């Protein structure tokens, strides 16, 4: 794992230290890694949402479609029991 040093003004440093204490992180580095992972996930989700918004509309579902899905889910649950 590589090392990166980050300079923060006092108010941000205090905030990070508070988050480490109150949210159960082991260190400031762990907190920053969690923030970066969350940001990556937000970016991935945004990309997926934009892809979905740009895609053509799908087929419409009606009450019968949902009834079939519920029956299939119930059958799967019964088979797993």
UniProtKB/TrEMBL annotation:
A Pfam family the protein falls into: ParD_antitoxin
InterPro entries reported in the protein's UniProt record: ParD, ParD_sf, Ribbon_hlx_hlx
GO biological process: regulation of DNA-templated transcription
Keywords: Toxin-antitoxin system
Sequence similarity: Belongs to the ParD antitoxin family.
The name this protein goes by in its record: Antitoxin ParD4
Organism for this UniProt entry: Tepidimonas fonticaldi
Taxonomic path: Bacteria, Pseudomonadati, Pseudomonadota, Betaproteobacteria, Burkholderiales
């Amino acid at each position: 794992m590589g090392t990166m040093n980050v300079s923060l003004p006092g108010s941000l440093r205090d905030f990070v230290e508070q988050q480490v204490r109150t949210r159960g992180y082991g260190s400031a580095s762990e907190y920053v890694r969690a923030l970066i992972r969350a940001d990556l996930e937000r970016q991935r989700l945004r990309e997926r949402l934009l892809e979905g918004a740009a895609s053509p509309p799908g087929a419409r579902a009606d009450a019968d479609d949902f009834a079939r899905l519920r029956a299939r889910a119930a059958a799967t649950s019964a088979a797993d029991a």
